[in-house]
Every structure is written in structure tokens, then in C-alpha cells.
Fold this protein.
Amino acid sequence: MITGAADGMGLQIALKLCIKSDLALIDINQHKLDAATKKCLLINPNCTITTHICDVSDKQKTRDLALAVAARHKLANRTLLLFNNAGIGGGGSIVTSSEESFDKVMDIDWGGVYNCTRAFLPLMLSAPAAHIINTSSICGFYANVGYLKPNVSYSAAKFAVRGFTLALLTDFKLNAPHIKVSCVMPGWIGTGLIESSQIMLGSELDNMMKVRRNSGLRLQQRIHELIKEGDATTLVLKNKGLLDQVGDVDWSKMSDKQMIQMNTLMGPGFRSNALTSATQAAEIILKGVANDEWNILVGEDAHSLAKLMKEDEEALYNDKTLIPDFFNYDIWEMNRVKGGKGLERVKTKSKL
Ligand SMILES: NC(=O)c1ccc[n+]([C@@H]2O[C@H](COP(=O)([O-])OP(=O)(O)OC[C@H]3O[C@@H](n4cnc5c(N)ncnc54)[C@H](O)[C@@H]3O)[C@@H](O)[C@H]2O)c1
């Protein structure tokens, strides 16, 4: 069972698993699910594949989903793998994002993982062996994607996924030792995440230009205030020329056409500019599952961040110059410092 199987990492996992396994592909996008099924059948025409339209944030629908999977697959004496992979981005700010979009991100990214685990649990308890693979994110251990870049709902949901998954390790060790658990922690992976999030949060996107322009202007205004206040982080970033990369754009002068163009380019850019491709990510995830790893870091950025967190978690929160933008690995402090001598910290603690 793979949720979010129509695109991105879920699709790539399906394309690899179809060689040996039967598949239940779950998503909200029928058109893309059909295309995914065709691709799998090209690889293995004998694979049994069922597709299921289900919004994983809807508890009742996930219960119906589990019944449908049980009815359409021969599950007796088979090992079951559940990839709780579906997710979207958004809900950046509790102040400025709409409550609807904020809640939707929580409901899908955390609620979906919980609902599907709960719904498929009876099947997994009766199976001879099972493995639940929950996708969190680096945002599930570090609640910051860059200087003045709030990412509140997503981070909260991904922390919840991580906490839930790691707590299950103990629960299953006692109460269901045949069920294994893994937590997937991807860095930036080239997928359709921006496009599918835009579809899921459609109502806010009608308002997209206004929201983007306002938050862009707010960002600039705040940067000017912080420079005036002598904020150490802001001054360091400004002096190093790094604010150009985190929002030194004149939003007030951007035409609607430019805004739409920028929005349209974001989806393809997210797919093509990432450090790790969705195919590479799927390989890493499946290798981790085969090796029974409970913590599966995906991508060089995820490994680097996990190491920095272990070295000094407080520094990463106190000093936002270390990772000015998660999505620009080249400007992370450790990559800027020649010779890789380690962390070069701002002396005065930032207020950010
Ligand atoms: N791409 C990244 O950089 C990245 C980084 C860290 C974590 N992740 C996580 O990886 C997971 C997979 O995302 P991806 O990057 O492959 O994105 P993606 O958009 O390419 O794939 C996600 C799939 O989930 C589906 N989906 C969305 N909402 C759904 C819902 N309510 N019910 C069922 N299906 C739904 C989408 O239609 C899409 O096919 C997500 O949980 C995401 O948060 C992604």
C-alpha cells in the first residue's frame, strides 16, 4: 500500500516495487494514478495493481480504503508494507496563512499518516509480517527552512509524524513484534510537491498573487526594520550579499504577469533543481526498508543537517546565518566557509 503513489517519491517506490510485489496505489488524482499503473504494468505485466482514490485526511475514507484493499487483494500469509507517503506543503504562517490551508496541511501530513496506520492496523496485525514506512521530512527534526521563512503547519505535522513513528517502535516491540517501523527524513527531493500542494490548497491560490505580494512586501519591510535595529543576523546576511537570495525582490514593482510566471516556474524548478531526484530517493528509501532501518535520511542535505543538529542544535536555532535558505545548499555556512573549518557563528545571539 502506497499513499501519494501517483507522483514523486510514491510513484518511484511503486515503479521499483512492482517488479516483485502486488500494489495498492492510493492518491487523490485519478488521471495520474492511471498513468502510474500503466508505467508499472510496462515494467511487470503480471503485477496485480489496484488503484484507490482516497483523501487520506478523511478518517472514514481511509477505513473504507482498507476494506477495499482487503477485498481486492489476496492478503493471507503475505508480508504487508504500508508507505504513508502522501503529503503537501503550505500553511507557512499561523498569522498570515488562511486557517483552512493551515489545517489542511496538518490534516493530510499528520492526520493522513495516523488515519492510514489506524485503518490498516487490523490487516497488519493479522499478517505474518508487516512494515510501516512513514514519511516525515528534515522539517520533522529542524523547524526552520531559512531566514524569515515560516513553515509552521508543515513542520508541526512532520514533527508529529516523527514522534508517532519513533514511539511506535516501542509499542510494536511489546504488542506487535512482527510489525516493523521506519521514519523517512528526506531533504529537498525533485518531485511534484509544489504542483500537488497548489492543487490541494486551490482556494488559497485564487488569492495567490495578493498573498505572495503581501508576504513579499512584509519580508522586505521586516528586513529594513531589522537592519535599522542592528540585528546581527540580518547584518551578516546583508554584508555577505545573501539577502539577494532570500527575498531582496521589489515585490511592489512586480506585474501580475510576472507573478503568474514566477508561480508557474516554481513547480518545474522544484523538480529539477533539487539535490536528489525522486528516483534516487526511492532507491534510498527501499534500501533502508530492506535493511530494517528505523531512521532513513534521504539526500546529502538531510545527512548534513542531521549532523549539524547532533553537533549543536541550539546554534542552528540561535544563528540563522548557518542555513539562510534550506533550498540553496551552496549558501549553507558549512559550504561557504573555505576549507570546511566548521561553523562560523554570529557572536551576538540573534533575536530571530
Ligand atoms: N519533495 C521534497 O523535497 C520532500 C522533502 C521532505 C518530505 N517530503 C514528503 O514526501 C512525501 C511525498 O511527497 P513528494 O515530494 O513525492 O510530492 P508529490 O506531490 O510529487 O507526491 C505526493 C502525492 O501525494 C498525493 N496527495 C496529496 N494530498 C493527498 C491526500 N490528501 N490524499 C492522498 N494523496 C494525496 C498527491 O496527489 C501526489 O501524487 C510527502 O509527505 C512530502 O511532505 C518531500
